[in-house]
Design brief:
Number of strands: 7
CATH topology of the largest domain: Alpha-Beta Plaits
Radius of gyration: 30 Å
Bound molecules: iron/sulfur cluster
Distance between the termini: 121 Å
Strand content: 5-15%
CATH architecture of the largest domain: 2-Layer Sandwich
Strand order of the largest sheet: 2-5-7
Order of helices and strands: HEHEEEEHEEH
Number of domains: 2
CATH class of the largest domain: Alpha Beta
Number of helices: 4
Structural class: alpha+beta
Helix content: 25-40%
Length: 195
């Protein structure tokens, strides 16, 4: 009986000592170290959290966070969407009637992006899309704090083309194709007439 009571006191004392040690050490601040620092995971004392968002832990240079697309450099080749293992990139291309410009690396642009959506709620941050992109216009940024209220807010829309403009671009292309077909037929008939 007395032994059990003594054991109870000893256990309570041990528990309180651990609690007190953590209580007092929590007043110490942790150093904000880069993830590459050897002591990054060895800081066992100090506050468990930092004063986020006023203070943020540095992130690794090769970290994979929110995607971003520089649309001026996108040639709408669809490679990123094809390689994505979870199909979270949705692109709709419209053929242009002529070259519509150049990317910063000199690649000629011939397609409009009527739609370029990335569903970051589905994204598994594998980075494959950034690897296959021929113009390196889709990149992982260092942005990781994207809390939203509605999950559909995590679908980022990078194309700024309105449905009206997209419809007009489709009509322009169809018109051009029809004109070319008429011209081709006329040329064939003329050739046959001369023969
Ligand atoms: S990082 Fe991976 S999962 Fe996310 S969009 Fe790119 S290819 Fe898809
Ligand atoms: S791979 Fe690059 S250039 Fe091609 S559609 Fe995707 S972001 Fe645009």
């Amino acid at each position: 009986m007395i032994r059990s009571i003594l054991n109870g006191f000893a256990t309570a004392f041990k528990g309180l000592s651990i609690t007190s040690a953590h209580l007092f050490s929590s007043h110490k601040k942790r150093n904000v170290l880069p993830a590459s620092d050897n002591n990054y995971f060895k800081q066992l004392e100090g506050t468990n959290t930092i004063q986020y968002p006023h203070q943020k832990l540095p992130i690794p240079e090769v970290g994979r966070y929110q995607l971003d697309v520089e649309m001026d450099d996108c040639i709408v080749c669809d490679l990123c969407a094809k390689v994505c293992p979870v199909n979270c990139i949705d692109i709709e291309a419209i053929k242009a009637t002529e070259a519509i410009g150049q990317t910063s690396d000199g690649t000629t642009k011939r397609l409009y992006a009527a739609k370029f959506d990335i569903d970051m709620a589905k994204c598994m941050y594998c980075g494959l899309c950034t690897i296959v992109c021929p113009t390196e216009c889709i990149v992982m940024t260092n942005q990781y704090d994207k809390s939203v209220v509605e999950i559909n807010e995590l679908t980022y829309q990078f194309s700024e083309m309105t449905p009206e403009v997209a419809a007009e671009k489709r009509r322009e292309f169809d018109r051009q194709q029809a004109e070319r077909q008429v011209a081709k037929l006329a040329a064939m008939q003329k050739k046959e007439g001369e023969a």
